[in-house]
Amino acid sequence: MSAPREPIEYAQASPEVRAVYDDIMATRGADWVNNFWKVLAHDPPTLRRIWANIKAVMGPGALDPLTKELLYTAVSASNGCHYCIASHSAAARAKGMSEAQYWELLAIVGLANETNRLVTALGVPVDERFQ
Amino acid sequence: MSAPREPIEYAQASPEVRAVYDDIMATRGADWVNNFWKVLAHDPPTLRRIWANIKAVMGPGALDPLTKELLYTAVSASNGCHYCIASHSAAARAKGMSEAQYWELLAIVGLANETNRLVTALGVPVDERFQ
Amino acid sequence: MSAPREPIEYAQASPEVRAVYDDIMATRGADWVNNFWKVLAHDPPTLRRIWANIKAVMGPGALDPLTKELLYTAVSASNGCHYCIASHSAAARAKGMSEAQYWELLAIVGLANETNRLVTALGVPVDERFQ
Amino acid sequence: MSAPREPIEYAQASPEVRAVYDDIMATRGADWVNNFWKVLAHDPPTLRRIWANIKAVMGPGALDPLTKELLYTAVSASNGCHYCIASHSAAARAKGMSEAQYWELLAIVGLANETNRLVTALGVPVDERFQ
Amino acid sequence: MSAPREPIEYAQASPEVRAVYDDIMATRGADWVNNFWKVLAHDPPTLRRIWANIKAVMGPGALDPLTKELLYTAVSASNGCHYCIASHSAAARAKGMSEAQYWELLAIVGLANETNRLVTALGVPVDERFQ
Amino acid sequence: MSAPREPIEYAQASPEVRAVYDDIMATRGADWVNNFWKVLAHDPPTLRRIWANIKAVMGPGALDPLTKELLYTAVSASNGCHYCIASHSAAARAKGMSEAQYWELLAIVGLANETNRLVTALGVPVDERFQ
Description:
Number of strands of chain A: 0
Number of helices of chain A: 6
CATH superfamily of the largest domain in chain A: AhpD-like
Shape of chain A: elongated
CATH class of the largest domain in chain A: Mainly Alpha
CATH architecture of the largest domain in chain A: Up-down Bundle
Radius of gyration of chain A: 18 Å
Helix content of chain A: 55-70%
Strand content of chain A: under 5%
Largest sheet of chain A: none
Oligomer: homohexamer
CATH topology of the largest domain in chain A: AhpD-like
């Protein structure tokens, strides 16, 4: 019972789950749904809620779509979430991220984690100009 | 002795520290140096090494300068490093980040931290298409 | 030598290790011991110390046993420790956690990680009423 | 501009922000709104979205209200978010958490963080019975 | 009620709390007790349990006392716990840590956090020789 | 494309990558290079930069080589980076770390993670003597 949940395929999904799958595919212009949603489908209220959030946050806004995926990938890489790195770096590549840009992203994630620790351990005071 | 280190101002700095401060200002086209460097100045080898890394990673490359600062800010926000958020969001604003873009960045950082936990706890299997 | 340690089964265990295994089984009313203890058994002082802590903290107290396991599972899910999620969610189910309760727990873990980042990044001041 | 955002009081709030404040107070049966919401109010879409999530996740469900606040507090304590610990432990106390229960919660948070690291570092294999 | 707990001084402490304070001072050859213990004193079972653990883990063993304090300081610096960095770096200094050693420790903490992210994001396979 | 990168063996490596591999082997007195470097080799600038940092930070200095590897292993264990624990604990063993010392290191890592949370959640004030 504590094992990883099996993804629920479209064919086995309830109408309310299919409605979310349909909206995901329509929003993305895709003909498939990735496993994250198929696992969340075990709890339809969570599926609906998280999709509504992703749709709102990752949809059209002040930042361009590629930048949004880069930010999502960077936080996921910093947190060490393999699935999230795989899915969001794939989305970033589909939106134009080059191999060189991915390596720069990883370099920034690594360096930020290094300097974050130095800053915190040393108690660096915030400069007046930053306030 | 364990208290936060005092920033070392240019006037009090040794020649080798001043050389790094000068390079920071020249690279940035700025007439001042922020406290992070003035605290690292207590250990010149660390000051030189970290600056060389920041200069290489944050300098011209495949990602544009604003995107780089957004990524640095996002990782710092995810890690909860106040000074790093203040300094890199200031740099991002100087490079053009709008208030609306900053709120979107924070929304992505928050959402990624939420879904990263759901994915990991549920053991979502990586889709074949992502491999 | 750096590979994951093999679990030490009861049959191969030393008397001092068996004494801890016996106490674990007696305390839990179980006829088996899970791998965490069988791996800690490579270092008997650590085995004894950690068991003494778990027994004290997770034993009868002000919180009921199910709530304690829910809290342990939530922190483990937040930290991304697969084994800990598996073992403590199994213990929580054995104490009555339903599938619906588990999904709510995960929703809270995810949401707390999201709002924690927003709060920290925005530097929200603590309300006087909370002090 | 990078400084912590000032809370926006009801008197200064726009109608759309007031609508959220009103819903928060009505839902909680309270006559005030805490700073988290007053800071999010700088970005109304984020304010509305996060409140919709909190309302859905922390509202009536399979877990009782006190257990939900305990879980939120535990994750916040594990993440080291001061404001979140203050606000959610206050909510938990209002729902009945005793001082003894709070100390047990903290003990579990601490112990889970200890054993999570031991489990991960030792690569403990998941028991068949947990799968 | 959610505010930070006031340290309990020796003069106000109960006999059972004083017994722990006495053991801390005797074990350390010190004439004072630091705030961590004075705050834990609000919950005597936690005070006794944590002190028993610290005494066992940080007492004489296979690693020398200075190395132990360096390790404690490094983990605390990596986690961003200000009080823990202050108290354990003070203990390390009292046991002989030099300023140069402290800077090297911080450099290792920073670098490990950087490479940990690169390794995890890139999914580096463990070399056979390490197994 | 998002799959883990394949290690690049010496035979397939470009001259600039071989130059780094050669320097790693010469510095370590080893006749092989571990997978971390073979994966970073996909981006030669990152390979060179990270090696330069490791060489500077982990080379001769104020802390002895074994202590440095213990610190690197401890931070990696705290962060849950499997590859990093495997590689740096192997390096620590090669420099003399005993099995008993490794268990003490893990005990300190676990305990520091426990007390770090208690300290942060309780808001323990820094003692004057530590400042």
